Amino acid sequence: METRIVFHIDFDYFYAQCEETRSPKLKSKPVCVCVFSDRGGDSGAIATANYTARKYGVKSGIPISFAKKRLEERSDAVFLPVDFDFYEEISEKAMEIMKENADIFEYVGRDEAYLDVTKRVEGDYNKASHLAQQIKNAIREKIKLSCSIGISPNKLISKIASDFQKPDGLTIVSPEKVEIFLDQLEIRAIPGIGKKTEEKLSEMKLKTIQDLKKLDVFSLNKEFGRKSGTYIYNAVRGIDTDPVKEREERIQYSKIMTLKKDSKELQFLSENILELCSQVHKVVKMNNKMFKSVGIHVVESNLTSKSKSRMLRNPTENLEELKKNTVQLLKEMLENQTSTIRRLGVRVSELSEIQGQSNITNYF
Ligand code: DGT
Ligand code: CA
Ligand code: CA
User: Fold this and answer.
1) Which residue, by CA, sits nearest to atom 15 of ligand 1?
2) Is residue 27 part of a domain?
3) How many Å apart are CA 364 and CA 14, to the nearest integer?
4) Checking CA distances to 190, which of 39, 125, 206, 284 falls within 20 to 30 Å?
């Protein structure tokens, strides 16, 4: 039997809750955070909505115009544009609190992370539950954010558990409760089971995780392929040996902009890309990092995305080198560019820490 204790922590209605922290008046209203497309008007999609808006059927991914229809009777409904920088800032602060409370911390995304806490709670689920409550309290007091936590012997079950009593949930599934917890759930509770898989299974009259246990691994492999089949076979039995791996939030820094006009002119695009380089470089400097990979990203007028990157010989923190490489990438991309470009981005990755005095001095 597994003896690990793993937390999965996920912020509730994250973007919308961030908006509530800066204007608490929003709390009583339906709040929708929107990704407006640059077509203007209401074109675009809902990134997320608070639970008041969700009662009216508003959810991530639906068109903004649908959301407005569904909220027609609520004249107090609020539709805000996304502000990623602000959410990032809040996320970083909350992640700090989690990191301090983990033996191993694995960043998953802006609003979620895994923590292995086995050692610090000495494998004790009671202590684990106290620790989780402390983390929830600290995040609520310092950042004014609510989150949901799942606790279990592995990442898979904790991820399912954190979603089980949202919002502001705390669900503990100790090893002896794993089976009873999983059996009652619908198949879609398993992360990675999409609509298609669910439909296929429901045609076979399988609805709950317990039903799914009737299938042996061979039939599952035959139906879904070896990789998915084996995953499903293990998942319904609560088996997941994937360790919590140390991973920090920033694996890359990037900036992206919508151009004043669509263009494929080198001169115009270079001017803009150099400005993006300076912005990215500022962030790199602020975080005391070096990068070894440089990339550019474009969105064409027809909304097709393209990117191009290159690995440098050595890690660097040098702005001129960043500029030289991005302009070179841009030239290469424009060589057989037929469509004009609407959005432009610069990204650095393969980050490493700057260490030692010698580096710090040549870094200004
Ligand atoms: P929750 O966890 O169910 O209380 O609600 P959220 O909003 O935190 O949902 P989650 O954890 O799936 O996603 C975290 C954030 O990611 C969410 O606040 C906004 C963003 N996001 C999620 N789904 C979509 C989507 O379909 N489109 C866009 N643009 N953003 C999304
Ligand atoms: Ca969330
Ligand atoms: Ca999430």
Assistant:
1) 14
2) yes
3) 37
4) 125
